[in-house]
Amino acid sequence: MQQIPLEQALGLSALLFAIGAFGVVIRRNAIILFMCIELMLNAVNLAFVAFSPRSGVQGQVFVFFVIAVAAAEAAVGLAIIISVFRHKESVDIKNFSLLRW
Asked: Per-residue pLDDT for 2 more than 90?
């Protein structure tokens, strides 16, 4: 079994995280925003898995926690998006002001 070098895995992780961060900053659509956040979380997962052979199993355990948080974030986020869409019939971020206190 051939192992991928750490530098390549971390480079790919950094590239994925940068694409996700760029999407969060630039895009205005809520669904694309959540997809970019998920991409950033998966980039962190890739970095944890890349470091796990050197640091033990702890990196892989953190991946399970990040996946659980991402699943909860997706469920709550999509529920909020559906709620806003029912009221405003748009998923544009500027319509999310109705959720403010």
From this structure: no
DSSP state of 92: B
Give how far the C-alpha of residue 6 lies from the chain's centroid of Cα atoms, to the nearest Å: 21
CA–CA gap between residue 67 and residue 21 (Å, rounded):
18
pLDDT of the residue at 98: 60
Residue with tokens 């559906």: 82
Rounded CA gap, 44 and 63, in Å? 8
Please tell me the pTM assigned to this model: 0.82
pLDDT value, residue 28: 84
Q: In the predicted model, is pLDDT for residue 85 greater than 90?
A: no
Other C-beta atoms lying within 10 Å of the C-beta of residue 33:
20
Cα Dmax for the chain:
55
**Euclidean distance between CA atoms 16 and 43, whole angstroms:** 6
39, 19 Cβ separation under 8 angstroms: yes
In CATH, the number for domain 29-99 is 1.10.287.3510
